[in-house]
Every structure is written in structure tokens, then in C-alpha cells.
Design a protein that fits this description.
Elements: E1 2-6, H1 10-21, E2 25-30, E3 41-44, E4 59-64, H2 73-94, E5 100-106, E6 117-118, H3 129-145, E7 151-157, E8 159-161, H4 167-174, E9 179-180, E10 188-190, H5 191-203, E11 211-214, H6 222-233, E12 240-241, E13 252-253, H7 256-260, H8 270-280
Parallel strand pairs: 1-2, 1-4, 2-3, 4-5, 5-7, 6-13, 7-11, 8-10, 9-12
């Protein structure tokens, strides 16, 4: 049986390696397929175009995991809405009905909750264009797959950090980090756990829910994260002050549903995750 990864950037590639380790044949669509590891059968594809490759007839799961080329509404629409539509068009064109199609979305669809708790039952109320476009893509997936025999699953990931995703580390190290002068909750997930969640939900034997929130166990205050990183790196504690608009809104996302489906986290909080990242960058604990 075959898993099709429509989008093979950093996260998609890591998921592909996990699929392969689980014994799946993995086909990865990417503009530069030669960059993919041998365990993934790379196929040249540009999801922004309508001429997509033939989908293997034995495809049982499709994972759409894309990223916008730039932080603009047009780029988001091209990647998430148009890209997803083109993948679904290709499934119809080739007469392939996978058991499951998983779309990787974001907790940005929830907007700001004033520090309140958010889970799958919370009504999506995106504040910015990124959340609105992602919510449109989610609805597109659900409507297009309704009645087709394919299950639609949406994984709403929090902020991904990990190898090569070191924005907060860089801010603390450079002295540009600022601890917000008012409490601000943040939600994150290590890249490896995000990839594991994709594989887990795509291969889940039980009937899945339509939506899952993909974050770790600790919706931590940003100030706590920054103080922890400063202590781990032996840097001065960042100052407290105006920190600008919250990137993901002020909310506490719950992973209880994802946990209850059987997923185990390698990095259940930012502490374990960032320690692993710092160890990989050669930063020694003081």
C-alpha cells in the first residue's frame, strides 16, 4: 500500500521517513524531488499547477503538508486552498479513493482566546488572513470528500520548533528577545512530534475524528519559555516590556484528543524539546 505525501518540505520529509520505517511505500511530491532521501520515492510536482503526476492506484492515505512561499494572503491561498484543490482534482482524475486524506492546518484558525482553553470543540474564529485561508482549505477538504468514501482528517498544529526552527533561541542568544509585560500563552510542538502525529493519524486503525489539535502538553507562557532558554544557554534573562502583537494569539490549546488516540510524545513540553535542539546545535548547558 502507498502513502502519498503532497508536499515534502522539512515536516513532510520527516513524516515520510517515519512512514517508510513503518513499512509503507512512500511517494513524495516536491518541486525538487532529488533532495529527498532514498526511502521516499520522489516525484517532481508543483501543487500550484493543475498538471499533477499520476497518483498510484493503491494509495491508501494522502497527506497534504504544504507551506506558503511568502507571508502574504495570495501565497497562502496558492499553497493551501489551490494546492489542496489540485490534489483533490488529481484524485478524481485518476479514480483513486484513499481511505484517508489528512490536511495539515494550524491553530491559527482559532484566533485569540484571551488566554482561554481551546480544543477541537472550540469554534474557529481566525483573526488574520492566515487563519482565514487555512479555515477555507479545511472546509474545502470536508466538502469535497463528503460522500466519496475517503475520510477527511485535519491536524491543526501549533508553532513548530526543532532542527532549523530556532527563532526563539536566536532571539535570546542575540539579546533581542522581550518577555511580554502581560501574560501571553503560546502553543508549540517539536518537529519530530508533529511528524509522528501525521503518521499516527494517517495510519490510525480506528475511525478518526475530523479535527485534531497538534500541540505538546504545556501551553506555556512565552516569558517562561524565554527565561528557560536564557538559563539553558547561560544568557542574560530577557527584559520585560511591550512585545508586540502575539504571533498566534493568546490561547491555551489542549492536545487531550490527540493524546487519547494513542499518540506518545517524544518531547511532551518545551523543556525536553528545546534541550534536544540546543544539544544538536552544540550549545552546552551552563
Amino acid at each position: 500500500m502507498t502513502v502519498l505525501l503532497a508536499g515534502c518540505g522539512d515536516l513532510g520529509t520527516e513524516a515520510g521517513l517515519l512512514f517508510a520505517a513503518a513499512g509503507q511505500r512512500v511517494v513524495g511530491w516536491r518541486r525538487s524531488p532529488e533532495k529527498l532521501p532514498a526511502a521516499i520515492e520522489g516525484v517532481a510536482a508543483d501543487l500550484s499547477g493543475t498538471e499533477l503526476p499520476v497518483i498510484p492506484a493503491d494509495t491508501t492515505a494522502v497527506v497534504v503538508v504544504v507551506a506558503a512561499d511568502s507571508p502574504t494572503e495570495a501565497a497562502y491561498r496558492a499553497a493551501y486552498v489551490d494546492g489542496l484543490a489540485h490534489v483533490l482534482d488529481a484524485l478524481e482524475r485518476d479514480g483513486v479513493t484513499p481511505r484517508r486524506v489528512l490536511f495539515v492546518s494550524s491553530t491559527a484558525v482559532y484566533g485569540d482566546a484571551g488566554g482561554g482553553l481551546v480544543d477541537e470543540s472550540t469554534t474557529a474564529a481566525p483573526a488574520g488572513f492566515s487563519g482565514r485561508v487555512l479555515r477555507e482549505a479545511e472546509e474545502l477538504l470536508l466538502s469535497r470528500l463528503r460522500g466519496t468514501g475517503s475520510e477527511a482528517v485535519v491536524l491543526r498544529l501549533g508553532g513548530i520548533y526543532g532542527p532549523g526552527r530556532t527563532r526563539l533561541i536566536n532571539q535570546v542568544r542575540s539579546g533581542t528577545a522581550v518577555i511580554p509585560d502581560e501574560p501571553r500563552f503560546t502553543n508549540r510542538i517539536h518537529r519530530d512530534d508533529a511528524a509522528a502525529a501525521i503518521v499516527h493519524l494517517a495510519l490510525l486503525a480506528a475511525d478518526p475524528a475530523q479535527f485534531y489539535v497538534g500541540v505538546d502538553d504545556d501551553p506555556a507562557e512565552l516569558g517562561d519559555v524565554l527565561r528557560f532558554l536564557a538559563a539553558e544557554m547561560g544568557c542574560p534573562e530577557p527584559p520585560v516590556g511591550p512585545a508586540g502583537e502575539a504571533r498566534g494569539g493568546n490561547k491555551r490549546c489542549s492536545n487531550a484528543l490527540l493524546r487519547s488516540s494513542g499518540l506518545e510524545f517524544s518531547y511532551p513540553t518545551f523543556r525536553e524539546g528545546y534541550r534536544a535542539v540546543l544539544a544538536g546545535t552544540g550549545v552546552r548547558h551552563p
